[in-house]
User: Fold this.
Amino acid sequence: MRVEIKDDFDLKKIADSGQCFRWQPIEDNGYRIIHRGKCLCIYKVDGYVYELDCTKEEYESIWSDYLDMSEDYGTIRSKIDKKSDPFLYEAAEHERGIRILRQDPWESLISFIISQNRNIPAIKASIEKLSEKAGVQKKDTRGEIYYTFPTPEAIVNMSDEDVAYCKFGYRDKYITEFAKSVVSGNIDFEGLNVGDDEEVLKSLTNIYGVGKKVASCMLLFGFHRLNAFPIDVWIKRVLETEYSDGYPFEVYSPYNGVYQQYMFAYYRNKQ
DNA sequence: TGCCAGGCCGAAA
DNA sequence: TTTCGGCATGGC
Assistant:
């Protein structure tokens, strides 16, 4: 099917934004996206027009929501004042096209536990290996094989050899113990997303292997709480070099997370 | 080759 | 409460 998308939407910028790790570039200006056991091949045709290898019903019930099409990112960007904050303005212009996806929360949390103290290519490699060892093998519409992201049960059932194959390094125990807690019912996964941002942050940081940074990424990318503001080494540099007098979080509420994402991508791409 | 990466834990101060 | 060493491994 074809769709016309007029709001901010740039496949490459989203794929490289560090929020998702299973977007793979394919032929003809396309990307293959794996999400909730399904796979979408999406191609930019021309201008605002995109070709998707799914039905209209599938697009409306799954992918439109995943791509956060109910949000207007042009409006969110328009709240930035060029004069009072030229850096953020420039970052948002340069990274225009990024959206905050509505990803599967389980996949997000495991992914961001894996992400700590690693660069993005290494994170992607580990997640592909994990999916290969514990996910379900399927084929996309081109006949290419892909692997779904594993369930908690599937991770619990992995052999030590398979876990080692994923190259999680010292994060092995964080991932396996968390999966065990979810399967045993020791942690109520749905219950993690109850309360205001502060309460959810606290629930998440109680998990072994989850600190403030991973928890903030989880709020923003897993629970779609757009005001969450993850501070990693890149954002720390931004705050130190561009906002030494303080960053105006109040001004940018409730979209601090979106603006953070523009700054992250912009600053990282500049290097 | 050595330094860095969407950091966290646990001990020490 | 804040600071700091150790940590597995790949990317560049």
Summary: Residues 117-122, 125-126, 167-172 of chain A lie near DNA strand C (CB under 10 Å from a C1'). The two ends of chain A are 38 Å apart (CA to CA). The CA atoms of residues 194 and 200 of chain A lie 6 Å apart.
